[in-house]
Amino acid sequence: MDKLKEYIKKNKKIVIPVIMVIILLIAAGIYLISESTSDSDKKIKAAGGENLQMSEDKDKTEAADNSKTEEDAEDDDSSKAENQDNGDKETEKNKSAETKGASDNDSKNSSHIHVWKERTKKKWVPNIVTVVDEPEKTVKYSVYRMYWYTTGKWEETRDPERFDKWYKSEEGGLYTIYYPYKKPEDNPLFIKYDKNGNPTYTNDHVIIGPYYETTPAVTHEEDHGHYETYVEYYCECGATK
Fold this sequence. Notes:
With 241 residues, the chain is of the alpha+beta class.
């Protein structure tokens, strides 16, 4: 220690500036460390403050949204209640108007005195009649039954012209004249021989009748009515008698 003191005394001009430089370096180091710590603290505080501010803003936003939702719900409930009240009031109003109208009508009907006036009117008086288009007809007819030799068949008709044709035909009424059979048994209409030995035949034609047939009249209905004039009594309220 004595040697150090002695050395310092001998070298004051050198030692003192060195010591001052060392002291300044130490002070600068302490300052820099302090500033660095301070900046870190500020950044941490700033970050914390920003996070806190963001959290507070989020809470405020959620609170505002919840408040708005509650207000909208309250507005909807209020609107529904108001519409319901209006509907109930309108229904009561209509019922009241109907009741009042019925009451007014009853009052008018019970208190109104008819003032009758006359007026002439016409009405149609129907008269349904039957019009004959074709009158009833009674027709006389006969049934003709004849045998066709060439076909071996019988024909039945009500047509006299058809019978006349058969009667004059070689295939019908004149067949046995134009084409006589060699023996009676060859004739398809042969029946037998009678007790005198004469052949008997089924008649090749028969006229049955006369008959009478009535055809009903053809008619339709028409209204041959007319108008009649009459007096009607009426009131301005619409009543008539």
